[in-house]
Each structure stands twice: as C-alpha cells, then as structure tokens.
Write a structure and sequence with these properties.
- This protein is of the alpha/beta class.
- The chain is built from nine helices and eleven strands.
- The chain has a seven-stranded mixed β-sheet, covered by helices on one side. The protein has a four-stranded mixed β-sheet with strand order 5-11-7-8.
- The longest helix has 22 residues.
Length: 252
C-alpha cells in the first residue's frame, strides 16, 4: 500500500485541486491518504471536511515548519511506500496512480519521475526536465544531486522502511537532504515512464530564493564536502547562464 501525505497551511486557494486530483485516480484500496494541517485559520479546514476523497488520517495543530509537518505524516504512515503531494500539487493526470502501481510491482526501493510545472492558476508551464537545466537522470543515484535537486519530492516514491525523518536543521532545503539519504539507502531505483506530478510554482523555496540557495550549499557540502560543493556551484551558475541564454529567459 502507498501512503500519500499532504501538508497544508492557509491553503484555501489550492487544496481543492489536490483533493480532486486524488479523487479521480481510482485504486482507492491501494493507498491511504494523510493530511497534516498547521492549524489553518482560513477556509482550509472547511474544504478538507468537504473533501471528495476520504481522508484516512488527519491532524490540525501548530508545527515548527514544513518539515516538522512532513515528519508527522511519516510517523503516521502505514503504507509500504510514501509520497508527499502537498497543497496545490496534483498528479500528472488520472492515470498516474495506475502507472505508479505498475512501477511498484517489482517492489523497488525508490520510484521517481518527471514533474510538470504549473502556475498559480493551474496552467501547465512545461516539464521540469525541459524548462529548467535540471535534466532527469535515466538511472538516478544520490550523486546526481551534486548540482541540486534533480527530482521533485512530489515525484519521488520511497519505501517507508528506508525513509529517514526530515532534518529540521533546514527550513527550505531539507527535501534535498532527505532524497539523498533515501537514495543512499536504496538498492533498486526505478524511473517511471510517465511524469508523476504537476508541481505548483511559487513555493517557499522560490519566495526565499537566497536562503534556499544557502541551505542547498550546506546540504550538498554535507554529502560531498565543501571544496567539491564550491566547484559544483560554479557549474550550477554556468549551467544556469547557458540555459538562460539558450532559452532567452531567466533561469528561475
């Protein structure tokens, strides 16, 4: 069974699209749905009560941030695999769970795939592997993260037994650290044939880009060392400039 975990806070503008996306997947017996809310004061809780899909486990209480909430979801999860699909994010289409269940038939440790970027109104921008310099690896390993987060966590499914808690040392980039840790522990890693999710642009890491970059450097230094990380970040800057020139647009 798959545990799908949604983190919400003041998400009235976006939560309905996430709930609707899960409801249209079918295969309801194959996954549990967990929602962790950070004590929202807007209409988020009312919309969750009207959810078109049954919420199997739910909590609404104050937390210390995104990763504290994600850790709560991990602790509550009962499935063999976990996937985080946060408020505003959706599955790529109505066949996404069908494809994921196929990918999980051989019981790999990790399944990953591409993500389609969407804007705040839900309109597609393009696949992440095409509209950013982050090319999706054909056979991912943790070493692919030397140039940053190459796989969105919404497109990353891991065996719950292998998944560590998210580090609370980072407020914006702990998901990079978490995916690297998961991949280090994984023996069998499978790339899905289809994109897995639609990723809502404009999240916390984009809104606080400078802090996100500093934390990313800290994470990459933790796993690769400081000197290699400096070299990698020079490569990231150069790659971003080349990409922007080629596309005639900004990198981010």
């Amino acid at each position: 069974m798959l545990s799908i975990i949604t983190i919400t806070y003041q998400a009235e503008a976006y939560i309905e699209r996430t709930l609707k996306s899960l409801a249209e997947q079918g295969h309801r017996e194959s996954f549990e749905y967990i929602v962790i809310d950070g004590a929202s004061k807007d209409r988020t809780l009312a919309l969750l009560k009207q959810s078109p899909i049954k919420i199997d486990q739910f909590v609404s209480e104050k937390d210390t941030g995104i990763y504290d909430a994600m850790n709560k979801g991990l602790r509550m999860a009962k499935g063999d695999y976990v996937l985080f699909m946060n408020a505003g994010d959706t599955f790529f289409d109505a066949q996404s769970i069908t494809q994921l269940l196929k990918d999980l038939e051989t019981q790999p440790d990790v399944v990953y795939g591409d993500a389609q970027f969407v804007n705040l109104t839900g309109q597609p921008i393009g696949l992440r592997s095409e509209v950013t310099p982050h090319h999706l690896p054909k056979q991912a390993t943790w070493k692919d993260f030397k140039f940053g987060m190459v796989i969105c966590h919404q497109a990353f499914v891991v065996k719950r037994a292998l998944a560590p808690a998210f580090s609370l040392d980072y407020s914006l980039s702990s998901d990079i650290d978490w995916e690297i840790a998961c991949l280090k522990r994984a023996s069998t890693i499978r790339k899905s044939e289809r994109p897995i999710c639609n990723y809502l642009m404009g999240g916390a890491s984009v809104q606080q880009l400078k802090k996100s970059w500093i934390e990313r450097f800290q994470v990459i230094s933790k796993h690769f060392g400081i000197i290699p990380s400096l070299i990698f970040h020079l490569g990231i800057i150069g790659r971003g400039i080349r990409f922007a020139i080629k596309k005639g647009d900004k990198y981010w």
